[in-house]
Amino acid sequence: MKRRFLLIATAAVAAATAVYAPVSAASLTVSTPSECSPIPVEAPAGAEVESVTAVSRPAGTFQVPGVPPLGGFPVPDVPARCEVTVTLTHGGDHARVRVWLPDTGWNGRFQAAGGSAYAAGDNGAALSTGVKQGYAMATTDAGVGDASTPAGR
User: Fold this and answer.
1) Of the residues 45, 56, 76, 120, which has the maximum number of CB atoms within 10 A of its CB?
2) For every one of its 153 residues, what pLDDT tens digit does the chain have, with 9 covering 90 and above?
3) Per DSSP, what are the bridge partners of residue 88?
4) Phi and psi for 81 in degrees, rounded to 5?
């Protein structure tokens, strides 16, 4: 069941990134910020979308939450971005998908970030670093919590 739910969460990432198209197909960079607003996301069969939020964040330093080695450090010079969060449910599981989209300087590429071993997701370290490099970034906690949240929440 967890594997199926992970596939559902991955589909939500694709839906969230498809909604916010900060660049035209003919251009690989963005010169003006795009609108950052929540949009309707269609859930894959057997799942429900609990919520979709979109928050516009200004450029600056992102403070990774937590304590070292997983967090507790600043990431300077993170560009302005749109942070989209989609929360899905399937059979009692709840998964959160986060997508960060740079307002300007998108390199035309997408990158997914995740944990390792028994940790899923990202506490913002990889998301902020990837956006600094121009990537549209995404991660999911796969319904088990992310790198800064113990499994079982």
Assistant:
1) 120
2) 444 444 444 444 444 444 444 433 333 344 444 589 888 888 888 899 999 999 999 999 999 888 777 678 999 999 999 999 999 998 888 889 999 999 999 999 999 998 766 667 888 889 999 999 999 999 988 887 655 554 444
3) 49, 95
4) -155, 165
> Domain residue spans in the chain?
2-140
The CA angle 129-43-38, to the nearest 5 degrees, is 55
Pairwise CA distance, residues 128 & 62, whole Å = 7
Whole-structure pTM value: 0.74
The Cα 101–Cα 138 span in angstroms is 9
